[in-house]
Write a structure and sequence with these properties.
Structural class: alpha/beta
CATH architecture of the largest domain: 3-Layer(aba) Sandwich
Helix content: 40-55%
Number of domains: 2
CATH class of the largest domain: Alpha Beta
Strand content: 5-15%
Number of strands: 14
Distance between the termini: 18 Å
Oligomer: single chain
CATH topology of the largest domain: Rossmann fold
């Protein structure tokens, strides 16, 4: 069977997609990991035959509805799990913002992080109940202690032990505020949720206030701690240069976005956050979690801030971080998974007996009616990607030479080019941890398109 995995933000999605791809390839399926343009162009030109197209969301914007219809018209079947979040205080707003009758009708399967997510979908969109599945997320699979050996030390890891601070602030993003507003308006969010217009302004002002408190806390802890460093990890959407400017003169503090957040959590002695999904992963991983709440927020998912130690002031943050650091030095014990709170268990399905990725693969295989298993023309697809790369390079040059006539070329900060040795290493580690003895091949068809398949004897 042909399986096409859409990757948008590699730091968030790549490892879970590699897990899906490794399991699928071991069972004889041919799996492509790529940005959406590569997959869509391959289907349009006939280089790629029908298959499962698995995407990161089915938000009912006109552009996405039209794109998915093109993919369906090429004979593909669409499945999805929303990558934006796995936990909400109430899923009603999330579901009405990011799904519709039409977007679900276009799908062959919709996967959910937990029972509350899927139950809300079924209540609001009851026409396609058989398409909705509680599988859990492959991202959560990789949080488990059984996958600890998958994660290498990050390349830029400090020599000293470090407190990890995970940022989820939207005040300094790669898009300007008005561009973000236009994007949400054009995608239909404001029409589906009339209260969102006000929220965009009020939540952004709240984020600026929190940014200030984060800066003050980092400076205070960096100056007064017991001998550890601080690693500030910006959200993938944030402009990392802004953090570097504000923290430029702060000693023993590193602003780093490379590598998966999971690798940083595994290597930290504690994690600090406010309103960030990283709180879930930290809790599941059994790491100490510091929830820094210097003021009462209104526009965020409050349940995330009920996890871990609730810290109100920078002085209290320093004391707690120092206590954890000192106890870590004394005990030096390996962390184990802990029982997640009852408030989270319905929102986050964690099956001890079967991976979420295995459940998703079984559903994919049930959808195959033999039309999804026709052989692809890999040579044609490879040459097509080469031509498209040349066209992008030409547009980039024209944008530099004639900025008034051509749109400037935008760097793909969400999806950096593949590092071939790194990707092969990740797949090899997954095979070892999953007990997969079959030989798999990783073929890099372009800098952002990867084919994983079983090697034929």
């Amino acid at each position: 069977m042909n399986i096409y995995l859409h990757v948008e933000i590699s730091a968030r999605e790549l490892d879970s997609k590699l897990l899906l791809a490794t399991l699928a390839a071991a069972k004889g399926h041919q799996v492509i990991l790529s940005r959406v343009s590569g997959i869509l162009d391959g289907l349009k030109k006939g280089a790629l035959k029908p298959g499962i197209y698995h995407t990161k969301s089915i938000t009912p914007s006109k552009s996405k509805i039209d794109r998915h219809q093109e993919i369906i018209d090429k004979g593909c079947k669409i499945t999805s799990i929303d990558e934006e979040t796995g936990i909400w205080d109430s899923y009603d707003r999330f579901v009405t913002d990011r799904y519709s009758e039409l977007s679900i009708e276009q799908s062959s399967a919709v996967f959910g992080w937990g029972s509350e997510h899927i139950e809300t979908l079924k209540r609001i969109f009851p026409k396609n109940l058989n398409k909705m599945h509680i599988t859990g997320s492959p991202r959560v699979d990789l949080w488990k202690s059984s996958f600890s050996d998958y994660w290498n030390n990050p390349k830029e890891i400090p020599k000293k032990p470090f407190l990890l601070i995970s940022s989820n602030l939207n005040c300094f993003t790669m898009r300007r505020f008005e561009d973000n507003f236009k994007l949400m308006r054009d995608a239909g969010y404001l029409e589906r949720d009339p209260g969102l217009f006000k929220q965009l302004f009020f939540s952004t002002s709240e984020q600026f206030k929190l940014f200030y408190h984060f800066l003050e806390a980092i400076k205070y802890v960096a100056k007064n701690n017991n001998g550890y460093d601080i690693v500030l990890r910006p959200h993938p959407e944030e402009d990392i240069s802004v953090w570097k400017i504000f923290l430029e003169d702060v000693p023993n503090t590193h602003v780093i976005r490379n590598d998966s957040i999971t690798a940083w959590i595994k290597n930290s002695f504690a994690v600090m956050h406010n309103g960030c999904t990283t709180a879930l992963e930290t809790t599941v991983s059994g790491k100490p979690l510091l929830t820094y709440s210097p003021f009462q927020r209104e526009y965020f998912q409050e349940i995330l801030n009920t996890l871990g130690y609730n810290i109100k002031t920078k002085e209290e943050l320093l004391i707690k971080a120092n206590d954890i650091f000192n106890s870590e030095k004394i005990s030096n014990q390996k962390k184990i998974e802990i029982k997640i709170p009852e408030t989270i268990s319905k929102k986050l399905d964690i099956d001890k007996n079967e991976l979420a990725a295995e459940k998703i693969l079984k559903i994919w295989e049930s959808l195959d009616d033999k039309t999804l298993s026709k052989p692809n023309n890999w040579i044609k697809f490879y040459l097509l990607l080469k031509i498209l790369k040349y066209m992008r390079f030409s547009r980039k040059i024209l944008g530099i030479l004639f900025p008034n006539k051509f749109k400037p070329f935008k760097k793909n900060y969400k999806f950096p080019q593949f590092n071939e040795n790194d990707i092969r290493g990740r797949v090899s580690r997954l095979q070892s941890l999953l007990g997969i003895e079959k030989k798999l091949e990783c073929k890099f068809l372009s800098e952002r398109t990867l084919l994983i398949k079983k090697i034929s004897k």
